[in-house]
Each structure stands twice: as structure tokens, then as C-alpha cells.
UniProtKB/TrEMBL annotation:
GO terms for biological process: ribosomal small subunit assembly; rRNA processing. Residues 192-312 form the Ribosomal RNA-processing protein 7 C-terminal domain. Gene3D superfamilies: 6.10.250.1770. Residues 249-265 have a biased composition (Basic and acidic residues). This is Ribosomal RNA-processing protein 7. It comes from Tolypocladium capitatum. Pfam families: RRM_Rrp7, RRP7.
Amino acid sequence: MVSVKGVSDQFAILPIRMPPVPSFPQPAIHEVRIRRNAPKIPTPNDSRSLFLKNVPTDSTEPHFRAVFADLVGAGRFETIVFDDEAKTALPVDPAHATKVIALARKRKRAEVEMEERAREEEVMRLPEIWTRRLHRSSGTAIVLLADEKSAQLVLKAIAKVQKTKKYPVWGNNLADEVPPLGSPWVSAHLQLCRVDKTSTQTAVHAFFNAFNRKEKDSVELAKKLRNEPDEDGFVTVTRGGRAAPASRNEAEEAKQRMVDKQERRKSEMKDFYRFQLRERRKQEQFALLKRFQEDRRKVDAMREKRGKFRPET
């Protein structure tokens, strides 16, 4: 049933006409709720992105590209990210897999390492055994548009659709070929489950190589933190040797203390010599005198503009 109101809980309601299928041979209306994307941590693309709720379970990027092209024309839809899509190729991360990045590392070297990590993650991916993924019911997604104006046009077009009742049809005018569901989808899955042994073995080896590298980094971090004294200058020693941090949170806190200590040493070295201390004090006095003179000029300008200055009593 289509809602009468166009906005519910600050969401604009976009009705989509679902065509009949063999399992349900009657047309239906599916409501997708859309609003401006406002995450807890802002990003540079928030002004041109929209938050979607209650997306259909068989949603794909071509489906929503066709829907948005029907609303505001082609060329404004950029991409869509569903909430249940895999975010990383290494879902299992060692508990203590943290890496200390040296502050003096050159940017070029960091970029090369990032490219190597990207290639490594590409090799780690197991062969896909589904031609098309289904999403969970009442799922969410983030749509990225070309610019902020496109996001405004989409919201205006949704309000217009509510009045004209000309709802976009799901699956019409698909620009890209989308694999069908039903028995062909299950049949293709059964075929893809017989994956190539060599490619699967390569992906598994790459996964464990990355896992072992992360564990090695965590051991190196633990060794470095064992030799880090506390605030009083002491190092905790146990029967088995110097103890490493008991948890990842303690390791992060110890690492932060180490960075703060290095910054404090740098600031102390700035005023190590007596002439450095005199120069810093002179600079502070000069800045204070300069601000005083600027404030006095502002007061004189106010007096000239308003006449005799009379403070309120």
C-alpha cells in the first residue's frame, strides 16, 4: 500500500512498481525511503550522497542506475554501496596485528607499499561462486551522485512522482546485463562451486602470508613496547622477562605514550639553551604588544565613529 505522505521520519518515500514474477504473478509497490546522507563521521562526499533504506533484496547497481535515470536523467548516478557488501578481502585480522609506521618514512615508499597491499588483497580473494548476490531484507545503501545539484534534483523528482503517480518500474531499461535469478541462478551456483584447485590454493596461501606478516608485525610491536618505560621511568619485569602489554588497548596506549614522550622531548629541546629562552620571551612580548596596539586602534576608530565614548553604567 502506498503511503499518502511524501515524507516519513525525514525520509522521502520513493514508490517503485515491481513487475509480476512467476512466484508472485501480481504487480506490487515497494517503498524505498531516501534522505540526505548524514553519517556520524562526516566525509567529503556527504553533500552529493543519499542514504537509502528498505532497498529490495534483489538490488544491483544497474537496477538503481536505471531508477535514478528515470527520475533525473542519465549521467547523474555514479555508484551505490550496499550495507552488507564485503568491506575488505581479509575479514579475519590477528588480535594484535598493529604496525608502527615510522614518522620518517618517505611518501613514495608508503605509496609503493599500498600498491603491494592492494595487489595482495586482489590475490587473496577466493573465486566467486554466485553470479548475483541477494541482500538482506530492509537493507540500506549509500548512493553517490555526480554533484550536490543532482542530489537536490533527485529529492525534487521524488516529490513530483508522489503527485503524478508515475512510479519507476523495477528492472526496466537496464543498461548492463544482470544475471537472472530463479533456477538459472541456482544452476550457475552449483557449477561455480566446483572451483579451480590452483586458483583456490593461491588465494589461501596469499591469505595466510598476509596473516603471518601481520602477526610478525604485532610481535615486533610487542618487543618495542616491552622496552618502553612508564611515566615514572620504570620497566615492568616478570619471571619470564619483560612483560608485553596484556591487550591491544594497552598496546595502543603504550604506543601513544611513546609518541607523546617523543613530542615532549622535541619541545624541551627547543628551549634548551638560554639564548633560545630569551628569544622566545622576546617574541611573546612583541606579539602581546602588537595585539595591544591593534586593540587600541580599534577603540580609537570606534570613538571617532560614534563620538565621545560613554560606557554604560
